[in-house]
Amino acid sequence: MQQIELSAYAKINWSLLITGQRDDGYHTLMSLMEQVDLADEITVQKAAFDQIACPPLPEDASNLALAAWLALKKKLNLKDCLRIIIKKNIPLASGLAGGSSDAAAVLRGANDLLDLGQTDEQLAELGLSLGADLPFCLAGGAAVVSGIGERVEKVSDFPQMPLLLINPGQAVSTAAAYRGRMGAFCDRTVAYSKIASLLIARRRLDFAQIAMVWQNDLQKSSIALCPAIAHIKLDLAKAGIPSLMSGSGATVIAPPLDEENLSKLQEKYPFVRTVKTR
Asked: Of 121, 155, 189, which marks where a domain is finished?
């Protein structure tokens, strides 16, 4: 086998509760995450030298997907080289973990293509050194994620749910959103209670109830960086539609809309996509 093709699925946050900050600067969190069927398309090929093609992103080690392969290569002292080709369908810096999902797909692809024998736990440990969302992206599906992203408790009984994703076409830096975070950290007992309520509402496919108990501790700082997030939420609220911001933004999640309201959003924003959870 000379190449392998994979799908790198986007993720949404039904919650993002920041529970503290460690001495090394990393924030601890508790989040309910779930993949949706929006995906980047990844091809991993054996090659004479390491390279990546991922327009419009940089084609060097600043790209997380190539950095993931180079980290795995260094860890295992490999001589193999890979060409990584990525077709981007997930908006950039959008709170949907596109970069982390690409990197996770490359780790899985390299492991299978080169028969490296790495376990899911070993890949997740390496992935965490590259980004907090990587362990979840490697696990896939739906999960309660805590710690700095290393604890992933899978949830297997969610019925599939249609959703609408709206992105204003503006990138939001996750690092900047965390730096701008304001207010007290979420108490862990409160966080557990909120996640428990979200699990019940999600199992019931009750978006209105999800929106009542959902909380994203990066929303204020992300809106300060990208006011268009607030404009999207206001447009939806005027139509009586609840909405949530995913991750560090700028993507907003809403239930599926009727044709008239969907058309209005499509005229105003560059990325409006109906998806389903996986």
From this structure: 155
62 neighbors 25 (Cβ within 8 angstroms): no
Residue positions annotated with a catalytic role: 11, 133
Domain count, the chain: 2
CA dist 145 → 140, 200, 227, 262 (Å): 12, 17, 28, 32
Domain with 28 in it = 3-155
What's the CATH code of the domain at 100?
3.30.230.10
Whether residues 136 and 245 share a domain: the answer is no
Amino acid at 10: A
- Closest-CA residue to 171 (of 231, 98, 100): 98
Task: Choose one of 155, 174, 190: the last residue of a domain.
Answer: 155
Contacts of 261 (CB under 8 A, 6+ apart): 239, 241
What residues in the chain have per-residue pLDDT under 70? none
Angle formed at CA 123 by CA 121 and CA 126, multiple of 5 degrees: 110
Distance of CA 260 to the CA centre of its chain: 29
Paired sense of beta strands 81-87 and 51-53, if any: parallel
- pLDDT tens per residue across span 152-194: 999 999 999 999 999 999 999 999 999 999 889 999 999 999 9
Write the burial class of residue 179 (CB in 10 Å: 0-12 exposed, 13-18 middle, 19+ buried).
Answer: exposed
For residues 70 and 203, state if they share a domain.
Answer: no
Q: Are 210 and 202 in contact (CB under 8 A)?
A: yes
- pTM of the predicted model over 0.85: yes
- What does the block give as tokens for 250? 């700028």
